[in-house]
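Progress report, Aim 2. The chain analyzed during this reporting quarter is listed below.
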Amino acid sequence: MKQLILSECLEALKQMEDNSIDSITTDPPYGISFQSEKWDYDVPSTEIWKECLRVLKPGGHLLSFASSRTYHRMAVNIEDAGFEIRDQLMWIYGSGFPKSHNIGKKVVEYNGWGTALKPAHEPIVLARKPLSEKTIVDNVLKWGTGGINVDESRIPYQSEEMDKIDFDRPRVRKSVNEDWILKQAHDYTDPSHKEYNQEGRFPANVLLSEEAAENLDQHTDNTSRYFYVAKPSKKEKTKGLDKNTHPTIKPIKLMDYLVNMITPKGGIVLDPFMGTGTTGISALNNGFSFVGVEMSEEYMDIAVKRIEAHTENQTKLDI
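Predicted structure tokens for the chain:
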């Protein structure tokens, strides 16, 4: 099932049935007036999140991107709507530019002073609708929701050699305590150790772009313990299009990972702030149904074309 709805999200949500959605993954307005975009005037209201809560099945999860500057407002509104805040994920990337004012241009003695840091991460709220049953097992049996798909979110081991600490590299050992820490790390990564899982590392709440991973690799042994994904290429953003005018597109690989993490097999994914359809591409290509809501005719047109171009063997979309 695939349905794209051209509407203001609150009105569209009010038309949906109670407890009809398995998961929500979305990239809503951050409330930072990004590039003076009119739609980015505020974070979604508590009223909107209450409607998201209503349509979500008990135990269903919500993943919502946010800005580092306004994350608190996003999380508080979600919590005030009745969600349980379960965690904060962090997508860390290397590319980005600061919107900083050069004070030194006007005041010579403050040459080199600015007003902002370079953005290098976006936090993601992980929240859950309260369970309707007494236990998580009972809730999963009744609704199919409540848990996180840990095994399919594991980070694959590159190789035994890649995933162990390099003890041959020269180190300055300042204390007995450091020797003990290195011993514990070796025990953990040794394949014979009981905590070593051949299926991969347990998924973490840190997600890295490939550039950030390369930077981190220069200072650590390796980053294979994390999921990492680059920002979307121009080719990915414009497939099926002449151009894509949306300024904040997320990579498909990242959304693949997120929707698989919180959506039960065959479940329905909702994105109430669809933009140009990346969540829909990921949902459909991973065997889920998708409902997307977008209020901009321009972005809806782009979303339709992108989803059709990026998905295979899909029938015509319902709009």
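Residues 242 and 302 are 10 Å apart (CA to CA). The first strand starts at residue 2 and ends at 6. These observations will guide the mutagenesis work planned for the next reporting period.
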